[in-house]
Amino acid sequence: MEAVTEVDSEGGESGVYVPCAPPGVPPEYASEDYAIVTDVYAHTYERSGDTGDGQHVEVTDTALHQALTDMAYRLTGHAYEPAECKAPRAFPEELPRYKIR
């Protein structure tokens, strides 16, 4: 299971990858060839004037990226059981928190 985010970008983007071979897939193809991948993306704009037109602004807020990653994680968890993945796995209650380096 992997969770990633891009902190310095014009939008907040986070994703979760969990290997998942559906029923009927031969074991030799079930290792890393199949997965549930969930991407969550949010744009952030800076308002300019009364028109509401805006420009993209860089999203560097770790809390926003953590919230997006948590959302992707929960969506992945909801998709995992109905997918009937071979070699089912338990999902931790929550992902580790991001830390600023």
Taking all Cα atoms into account, the compactness measure Rg is 17 Å
Number of helices: 1
The helix content is 10-25%
Which class of secondary structure composition applies to the elements?
Answer: alpha+beta
The unreliable regions are: none
Any idea what the shape is? elongated
Instruction: State the end-to-end CA separation.
Output: 22 Å
- The SSE order reads EEEEEH
Q: What is the strand arrangement across the widest sheet?
A: 1-2-3
Beta-strand level of the residues, as a percent range? 25-35%
Q: Tell me how many strands there are.
A: 5
Arithmetic mean of pLDDT: 79
Give a short account of the largest sheet: 3 strands, antiparallel
Notes on the protein architecture:
This protein is of the alpha+beta class and 101 residues long. The chain is built from 1 helix and 5 strands. It has one helix at residues 62-80, and strands at residues 2-6, 11-19, 35-43, 45-47, 54-56. A 3-stranded antiparallel sheet has the order 1-2-3, with helices on one face. A two-stranded antiparallel sheet has the order 4-5. A hairpin with a 4-residue loop joins β1 (2-6) and β2. It is elongated, with a radius of gyration of 17 Å.
